[in-house]
Predict the structure.
Amino acid sequence: MDRYNGKIGLWSYRARTIPALLLIAFLFLIPMAFVFSSAIREGTLAEALGEGATYRILLFTAEEAFISALVSTLLAIPFAAFFSSYRFPGRKAILALSGLSFTMPAILVVLGFVIWYGNNGYLNTMLSEIIGQGYRPFRILYTFPAIILAHAYLNFPIAFLIITGAWSERSGNEEYAAYSLGKSRLWTFLHVTLPSIRGSAASSFALIFLYCFSSFAIVLVLGGQPRYYTMEAEIYRRVYIDADIPSAAAISIIALAATALLLLIMPEGRKEKKVDRKRRMLRKAHGWSLAAAFIIMLIILSFLLPPMLAIVYRSFHAKGGAFTAEHWMKGLEAGSMAIAASFVIALISAWLSVSAASAIALYSAHRQSRVLSFISTLPLAAGSVTIGLGLLIVSSAISRLLPLSADWIRYIMLLAAHVMITLPFSIRTLMPRAKAVPEILSESAYTLGMSPGKTIRKVEKPLLRGGRRKAFCFAFALSLGEVNATMMISLGRLTTLPALIYDLIGRYDYQSASALGTVLLLEALVVFILAEIGDKNGIS
């Protein structure tokens, strides 16, 4: 039986996608229909399309996303070039630290930047002690550069890993051929190397652009001014400041249309041109290259570590520098329910997300089609605030129809939001694994009389175990650190760990926020380690 064209086999894959499609329909498409209906019914969509302010916010959102993606990608290229050419002590540790960014909640970046780069932060304190009385504080918070710096901090590691991975796959024979023809290293780099990795650079740029286009907490806190609001921040403002849900719905529709167009044209991961299948052999760094390696590692560590270490230090030290664990006790006591709620929501949403993603990935890989994967990644285009708005409107409708507690409805909607937010990432993690399942194994199982359903369960799914574990860990971490949809749905009545940290930042209680932030940071570290172990060992 042909794996792709056999009707029985195809229906077996298709049937397994039905629960996933129902999940997307009920948790995303119907809420988005409510958003669209709210915007159309009140006439606010046409009004928003005619407002100059709408286009100003849209253009600013595109501008900050473009600059953030460009800075992150351009910063990554020279580091990727070195890491793709040399092996040296500490290389794997830096790559692992960069991989940790995939589990790093944005709220921790906000907290770390406030503590480290703040006007009275640790960086200014250190510089004032070194320079003395003539020192003028380094002021970057509540400015446009603060937004770009924070986005680069969060997304540079993503570009670095994507480009390094693609670059390391190249054999390097084209460069050697150029050298043999008398071309200089600069000419070869500009005319041979850069064109060969432009696919991975474009992929990382587009992915980071999409992330930054939907930026919320970083813009809201580190930008700190309405003129720096993105579409997501403007949606939140119109709901909670103006109490104008139809107007917020109109902005959501415009933002969704813009990002859906980007998602449609964004490459899933263009393959780089290879001369042969032989991987590049890394040269052992010595002499000047070893010295350059340590300088490069120092630069990366100096950029990535201080904000996170500042959170841990601040959790144990008062503003004057005195050691105290008082705020740990205070933070854990106040946040015990929030930690428990976050953990349960993350656990359930990650399981649902990976289960749905597995079925979608296998079906899409076997059909060689992007349609289903595109539909299921639309929540990524919508953004978490828009998803939260749709579910907020749905929760209001449900509360009018059913005699359920308002808090229970919000918790259900919050879980639904987390499933939809994590689903696109789970699919993107599992899709390459599903495409890599050897066709000959399934066909051999069919030849031996195994049914399509049993082939999926016994042959194909076991091959996805490592990827499923990695997807589960990342979905769990993403859910545990999610703050945008939570703030939109909760109306201040439900508190998760990231939402509580955000609230403590707003009240300038940085020590309690740092204590809870350290808990979240440790969680991200543990999840990342488990994901890497599971991925290498292929266990579930």
